[in-house]
Amino acid sequence: MASEKKPNNFKLSPYWIYGILIVIFLLLNVFSGSNFQEVGKLSSSKFNEYLEKGQVEKVVIFNKTEAEVYLTAKALKDKSHKTIAVDLLGRVNKGPHYSFDIGNDEIFQKKLEQAVADKKLKDFDFKPKSNWSEIFFSLLPIIVIIGLWIFIMRRMSGGGAGGGGGQLFNIGKSKAKLFDEKSEVKTTFKDVAGLEGAKEEVQEIVEFLKNPEKYTVLGGKIPKGALLVGPPGTGKTLLAKAVAGEAKVPFFSLSGSDFVEMFVGVGASRVRDLFKQAKDKSPAIIFIDEIDAVGRARGKNNFSGGNDERENTLNQLLTEMDGFGTDTHVIVLAATNRADVLDKALMRAGRFDRQIYVDLPDIKERKEIFEVHLKPLKKVDGLDVDFLAKQTPGFSGADIANVCNEAALIAARNNKKAVDKQDFLDAVDRIVGGLEKKNKIVTPDEKRAIAVHEAGHATVSWMLEHAAPLVKVTIVPRGQSLGAAWYLPEERLIVRPEQMLDEMCATMGGRAAEKVVFNKISTGALSDLEKVTKQARAMVTIYGLNEKLGNITYYDSSGQSEYNFSKPYSEETAQVIDQEINNLIETEYQRAIQILTDNKDKLTQLADILIEKEVIFRDDLETIFGKRPFDVSEDEVVRE
């Protein structure tokens, strides 16, 4: 049976083209007798000298003004002509070897005729100046500029080194990557753990496209767009990939920055081309990741004059989204973690009809995400996934994937055959706290100060009802911290003032312990002070939990405050805010000092154990302090 002839997919690269041109240029020079050496300049007296010695073989006069001199082979062996004997390629220089300007052409012609008669010159000739090589060299800069321009345009149009000539002027074409039923998109909704509410919303969008009659028969209109909003790493792009895998319709995927270009009008042109392609293949989905790159509100930043192109692109995007017909069956999905900076015209109904909030996963959703990422790992039998979910509060889906990967790396580093529980705990410590610095030089006095500081956190948190109970305390340096305390807070949907105050008091326990034990304070409480200051400011200015200011907030959910350089309150109110923040922090600091003073012996005992072991756990605190009377179930672990 005859073999099937394979198509020739060879594409001539610009590098090949430029290389071929260079080779052709070299060959022309080789076979045309041209040289790569500049012709030597000669004076009339020197020419007369060479002519009298019989060293000149031929003279060619151009335009009756310029003479080119060809020397004899014997003359080229003379040392005086050593510099022009060979060209840059090492070949014998065939000439012309010298050139000079003649005076009166008639007198010069008579001189040459006499030299020929005396057999001192073989031949001479008069010619017009029309040397093609000189014309080529005069045009070479223009040729190089045109070649570079073509090369740059090819690269910017996405043709790359292997692109064909058809992509030369495709700079205004959309850069969207098309996924359809022929593409190998293996991500489905089964691969998206948690996010049940968001999955339900996007599943309905897929159903719109698969079976639109189900909704339109009752007079409903298919939504034109859905915006996925949420913190980084929560799975917005993963949801879009699942839509691509489930929809079985053309799926155009690109980033918001793909529209932005240095040339005026390119972004708007790409938007038009993208929506034209989607309409031609409808029903279809367009997914724009990080849409805030192009959808940022217009006119907010007036200090930069280079935003016209981005705003033109946004205007075109608004026009295209609003220009859909009810039967076009093209839906736009977009993702961002900065919905507050998006233009209001982009957010209105009729463009993005739905906003789907993709929040950080709760403990149940974290368990589901762990089960997805644990599948490819070789883990020990009976690994407690519920325990892992409790150890990672506030972690996003991307963070959990990182924990699983880091645990596998730690197990491999320790030559284990399977990943166990301790590897995951070490991975959480590594990700949240940073790399353990075993070789960090800490003096005995510094080590005791760190131990007292961390013991102060542990003691105060153990004695307060609403403070999170301790899991472990360490004085092993990690990342930028010299010690750390880990707690078990409960997940709260609302927080009451007494809970916030207890947390602030526990946070100030480190500095308070230094004051109680050493009667001195240090710079070690910087992160603690930053944390309590933010909490106190939030209580006073955001949550309306301060009695003196009353039920008022200065929080702006629209995000406009970051562009407003004036305070939303008077100077008198600012002084009250500062005073109330200071009062809150100082009150909790004195409260922590009182608790530690009442339990100074136990504080010192705990610090001594911490210096000896470097890491202590909940059991050590129960041995010293006894069981907490107001203990709650262990929900999750966070690091202060």
From TrEMBL:
Keywords: ATP-binding, Cell cycle, Cell division, Cell membrane, Hydrolase, Membrane, Metal-binding, Metalloprotease, Nucleotide-binding, Protease, Transmembrane, Transmembrane helix, Zinc
Family annotation (PROSITE patterns): AAA
Binding of Zn(2+), residues: H453, H457, D528
Gene3D superfamilies linked to this entry: 1.10.8.60, 3.40.1690.20, P-loop containing nucleotide triphosphate hydrolases (3.40.50.300), Peptidase M41 (1.20.58.760)
Active site: E454
Pfam (any one): AAA
Cofactors demanded by this protein: Zn(2+)
Similarity comment: family membership: Belongs to the AAA ATPase family.
Matching PANTHER family: AFG3 LIKE MATRIX AAA PEPTIDASE SUBUNIT 2, ISOFORM A, ATP-DEPENDENT PROTEASE
Protein name in UniProt: ATP-dependent zinc metalloprotease FtsH
